[in-house]
Amino acid sequence: MTETFPLVGEPLALDLLNTCPVDGDLIADPAGLADWLAAQSGRLGPVGGAVGAAEVAAVQGVREAARAALEAVRGGARPPAESLRVLNEAMAAAPAHRELVRAEGGGLAVAARRAGGTPARRLAAELAEAVADLLTDARVGQVRRCEGPGCVLLFLPVNPRRRWCVATACGNRARVARYYARHRPDGA
Question: Among 182, 36, 17, 28, which Cα is nearest to 83's?
Answer without folding.
Answer: 17
